[in-house]
Amino acid sequence: MRRRTKWYATALGLTTAGTLVLSTGGASGHGYTDLPISRQKLCQNGTVTNCGDIQWEPQSVEGPKGFPAGGPADGQICNGGVSRFSQLSAPRTPSGAAWPATRVTGGQSYTFRWQFTAMHATTDFKYYVTKAGWNQNHNLARSDLNLTPFLTVPYNGQRPPSTLSHSGTLPSGLSGRHVIVAVWTIADTTNAFYACSDVTF
């Protein structure tokens, strides 16, 4: 286990193996979105501060798969149900400011990008977005989302490269602030990885 942890630390550019605490211990693949930039990446790159453990582990938001029928509980979707990453699910940053948002245009093509620190056999990638009139003042719940993904990218058990991009059409008819929930479903474990990105249509 020490050798495996050291490998992860090296992959992340950390100077000591002891700096990294693995959130699950079971999966060998981890990843997050940086287009549109996710909350965990904003914490990792220092744009948002005082985020806690997630600043060291943006790739580790791993929870049960099966969303939306299963998966993390309402109020914990953005942190994948991992309590030590709970800051990600709060409606505002730890400083009380709004989460920085990426400007997008409904009805147009957008290229989504994932970064992986290790690869894992993949079922698919799915993207969900909040509904018009959603409640921005509480932790994200299923009732805030259109539970039909606006983009599904099958991956048929393949392992992704270290960086993976794919394009899809953003929903039309939305305006103002919204949240996109990206879900990377793993083929050979019971888990998926979650990433929430704040956007402005």
Automatic annotation (TrEMBL):
It is found in: Secreted. It comes from the Bacteria. It holds the Pfam family LPMO_10. InterPro entries: Cellulose/chitin-bd_N, GlcNAc_Chitin_IntDeg, Ig_E-set. Residues 30-199 form the Chitin-binding type-4 domain. One of its GO terms (cellular component) is extracellular region. SUPFAM superfamilies: E set domains. Keywords: Secreted, Signal. Transmembrane segments: none annotated. Its main location: secreted. This is Chitin-binding protein. It comes from Streptomyces griseorubiginosus. The gene is gbpA.
